[in-house]
Specification:
194 residues, flat
Amino acid sequence: MTDPSAPPEPPAPWLVRWPARVVAVLVVLPARALWDGFGAAAGLVERFWDGVVTRPWLAFWRFVGRLLRPLGRLLRAPLHWFVRYVVRPAGRVLDRLWQHLVLTPTLWLWRVLVAPFGRGILAPIGRALRWAWELAGGALRALGGALTAPFRWAHRTLVAPALRWARRAVVAPVRRALREVREQVRRALGGSAR
């Protein structure tokens, strides 16, 4: 038998190393292999995208830009003239046509037809709905008062007087007795009475 005063022996090293190796082989190595595989696949996709899509696309548009730059310089003055003397005046004309052929008649129709319709027909409907809402609210208020009246009466005539009597006849004397006992205990123990 072992001596109880002797320090405990450390566990055998294989009891610690063996489960750690099992976890490493069954969990850590497959996870690391998947991680490395995903990283390699992502690198291949990035290289493919960069080499097949991005660089040729950028090179194509650089080439097109170099080809079109002289054309742009050549067309700058005529386009400036076209915008200044054709597009802007046409925009002003279209703006005036819009105002005089669309907006003004629409506002006139609003003032002549829609607003009076709203004032003449929709406003009385709104007033009737408000009156009905207020009437329903008054009816519900009266119904609530009628339903709560017996409970208020019971509280006023039965519960409240019983509670007042219990406070005067039971609670107040008990409270006075407790105060008196507390005061006598304080005096007996040498404390000052309040």
